[in-house]
Description:
Elements: H1 3-20, H2 25-32, H3 36-43, H4 51-61, H5 74-87, H6 92-116, E1 119-121, E2 128-130, H7 131-134, H8 142-145, E3 147-148, E4 151-152, H9 155-171
Antiparallel strand pairs: 1-2, 3-4
Helix pairs in contact: 2-3
Amino acid sequence: MDDREINKFVGMKIKEFRKNKKLTQQDLADLVGVKNSAISNYEQGIRIPKRDFLFKVANALGVSIDEFFPIQSEETSSTLSEINKISSQLEEPRQKVVLNTATNQLDEQNQEKKKESKIVSIKNEQEKFDLADLVDDSKVDWDKWVSFDGRPLTDEVKEAMKKALGKELEDK
């Protein structure tokens, strides 16, 4: 689902929950502190609701914020559901703490993935080498560990690979 489809889906869900509560657009607008035209624009997918607004709408409609979004995998959906259910009950300053914590966790995860991408797993004896080690002949025996189609590499190919690896490491 692309962003446009998700926005339309969110709008449809707002409308569905509003009607289930037998509220008019004006009623919901009054509950969340916006004009009824804003509710109309969100429901039609014309405007994109911000997270804080969705928390307010979820509270006003008595639903969890994750109910505005398409179902994800069972495990992820369950965890997100719990997070959203709890955070939707928090006051806005505390919701911002949750958001900041989630953002920090995502940054840490991305940094870890970036570091992991530089590790090459060698099947023999399950040793791991940092890519930086592959450009240093004293740390890796290229004739023992690296081959092409089962044949040893020529010296020229080894040097070209080391230069390419070195350049790749500089770019990261």
